[in-house]
């Protein structure tokens, strides 16, 4: 997450594109759902992660559990089910939020990114806040990356999922048939037909020379690609903007332990970086999490396409 000078809606450009292009539709002029040649998967066992939330600063607990084929990924909060779906995505400051029946799940993108990239197509996600009366809860920020979520998934293990009838179900994926894009000012997201999945991301912070303009392109070549290339990249922020964010009621749980912080004048304040372009890689982490929201019924959220994004969270990104 990069913290910006203005508190605006996070990833409105990307969410608009996903709704426009109907990635999750079975048939449309833009996309077609086709067999992936792989079976839907779920966790082999349950696993629990506890930690502090980035924005509220409160403690929360997440338990990941196996789910049947066709169930998809969904949260359980206050005895209600909230699907991790674009239908329930709400534009919110500096994070991706799910809203249903007055209940909010905030900062879901790092967890969903890990589940999508690791191939956990079906997952029951129980989440609890420290206060029994809260109507919203936030996923723990961990160290600001998706590494702890990947470690938890690998600890639990992955199995082929079965439906209620005990049958395996083939995973379908969206193939993009024609280019589609959305833009706002100088930010854009474009999706092009391709034979494989690839994400190319650009960011630009001219006021912060240590970050500057960065581009990075990534494709999931094998099972360990995400864990090696993307998951370790951490949330980043501009030091001079932190106080403004806190005055707006955000990043109350932010610290040097869960974000890399860059000063416009002095550069990175808590080196070393895990990658020279860690900030840009983290934007890909966020994009994967948001793309996961188009998955339905245990099918893939990652389209077979080349996704190109530049400043895709607008001027207010928080990842």
Automatic annotation (TrEMBL):
Belongs to the LpxC family. Pathway: Glycolipid biosynthesis; lipid IV(A) biosynthesis; lipid IV(A) from (3R)-3-hydroxytetradecanoyl-[acyl-carrier-protein] and UDP-N-acetyl-alpha-D-glucosamine: step 2/6. Transmembrane segments: none annotated. Pfam families: LpxC. Its main location: mitochondrion. This is UDP-3-O-acyl-N-acetylglucosamine deacetylase. Keywords: Hydrolase, Lipid A biosynthesis, Lipid biosynthesis, Lipid metabolism, Metal-binding, Mitochondrion, Zinc. It comes from the Eukaryota. InterPro entries: Ribosomal_Su5_D2-typ_SF (IPR020568), UDP-acyl_GlcNac_deAcase (IPR004463), UDP-acyl_GlcNac_deAcase_C (IPR011334), UDP-acyl_N-AcGlcN_deAcase_N (IPR015870). The keyword Hydrolase applies. It is found in: Mitochondrion. Its cofactor is Zn(2+). It is an enzyme of class 3 (hydrolase). Its EC number is 3.5.1.108. The gene is A08p035050.1_BraROA. Involved in the biosynthesis of lipid A, a phosphorylated glycolipid that in bacteria anchors the lipopolysaccharide to the outer membrane of the cell. Lipid A-like molecules in plants may serve as structural components of the outer membranes of mitochondria and/or chloroplasts, or may be involved in signal transduction or plant defense responses. It catalyses: a UDP-3-O-[(3R)-3-hydroxyacyl]-N-acetyl-alpha-D-glucosamine + H2O = a UDP-3-O-[(3R)-3-hydroxyacyl]-alpha-D-glucosamine + acetate.
């Amino acid at each position: 997450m990069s913290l910006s000078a203005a508190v605006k809606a996070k990833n409105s450009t990307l969410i608009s594109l996903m709704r426009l292009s109907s990635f999750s539709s079975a048939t449309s002029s833009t996309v077609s759902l086709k067999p992936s040649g792989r079976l839907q998967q779920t966790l082999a066992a349950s696993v629990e992660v506890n930690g502090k939330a980035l924005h509220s600063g409160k403690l929360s607990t997440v338990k990941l559990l196996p789910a049947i084929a066709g169930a998809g990924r969904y949260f359980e909060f206050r005895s209600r089910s909230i699907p991790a779906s674009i239908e329930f995505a709400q534009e919110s400051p500096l994070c991706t939020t799910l809203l249903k029946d007055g209940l909010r799940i905030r900062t879901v993108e790092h967890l969903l990114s890990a589940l999508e990239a690791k191939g956990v197509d079906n997952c029951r996600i129980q989440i609890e806040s420290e206060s029994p009366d809260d109507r919203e809860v936030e996923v723990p920020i961990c160290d600001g990356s998706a590494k702890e979520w990947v470690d938890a998934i690998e600890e639990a293990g992955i199995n082929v999922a079965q439906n209620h009838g005990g049958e395996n179900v083939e995973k379908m994926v969206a193939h993009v048939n024609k280019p589609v894009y959305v833009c706002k000012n100088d930010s854009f997201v474009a999706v092009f037909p391709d034979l494989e999945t690839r994400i190319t991301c650009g960011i630009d912070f001219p006021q912060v020379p240590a970050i500057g303009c960065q581009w990075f392109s990534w494709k999931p070549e094998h099972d360990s690609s995400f864990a090696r290339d993307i998951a370790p990249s951490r949330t980043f922020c501009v030091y001079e903007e932190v106080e403004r964010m806190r005055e707006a009621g955000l990043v109350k749980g932010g610290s040097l332990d869960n974000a890399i912080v860059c000063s416009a004048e002095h550069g990175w304040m808590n080196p070393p970086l895990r990658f020279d372009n860690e900030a840009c890689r983290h934007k890909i982490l966020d994009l994967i999490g948001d793309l996961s929201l188009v998955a339905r019924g245990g099918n893939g959220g990652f389209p077979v396409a080349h996704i190109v994004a530049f400043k895709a969270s607008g001027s207010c990104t928080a990842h």
